[in-house]
Amino acid sequence: MQKITTFLWFDNQAEEAAAFYTSLFEDSRILEVQRYGDAGPGPAGTAMTVSFELAGQRFVALNGGPQFTFTEAISLYVDCASQEEVDELWAKLTDGGEESQCGWLKDRWGLSWQIVPKVLPELLSNPDPAKAQQVMKAMLGMRKIDINALEEAARL
């Protein structure tokens, strides 16, 4: 068991969100659902917490009510191997959510994600500062990251 687990507070959609998230990544599964009993505070039988794994990383989602919502101050960073992976995750996570800039988005529950191709940090670390700055400039104009456009910027 990992020592530190990300804990996500939902209004009442923890089970739905965990099922959706686990459908997106290999090596992902629901581990356990604890349900509210008659003592509440949620309706008896509804999910209180949902423990799940995404790509082997453990998370817990709580149905805690509307008191707290997600902000961009916390996001889940996904290291993508290809443009196809970026495109697929972007499409699924923005369905009902919203796009932001530089590979950031909010899903339908308001949780922020960074969908980033592995090549981006490499291109931003180019030993030629002018090329690295061209990549940065290109990225700042993007919503979903476009690997070909970044690589083209690095060649300028």
Structure keywords:
156 residues, 5 helices, four-stranded mixed β-sheet, elongated, 28% strand, alpha/beta
Describe this structure in words.
This protein is α/β, with parallel strands linked by helices and 156 residues long. Helices cover 32% and strands 28% of the residues. It has 5 helices and 8 strands. The protein has helices spanning 14-24, 83-94, 119-124, 129-140, 147-155; strands at residues 6-10, 29-35, 47-54, 57-63, 75-80, 98-99, 104-106, 112-117. A 4-stranded mixed beta sheet has the order 1-4-3-2, with helices on one face. It has a 4-stranded mixed beta sheet with strand order 5-8-7-6. It is elongated and about 65 Å long. The termini are far apart.
Q: What class do helices, strands and sheet pairing give?
A: alpha/beta
If you average the pLDDT, what whole number results?
A: 97
Low-confidence stretches: none
How many distinct helices?
A: 5
Question: Termini, distance in Å?
Answer: 47 Å
Strand runs, count: 8
Read across the widest sheet, the strand sequence of neighbours is: 1-4-3-2
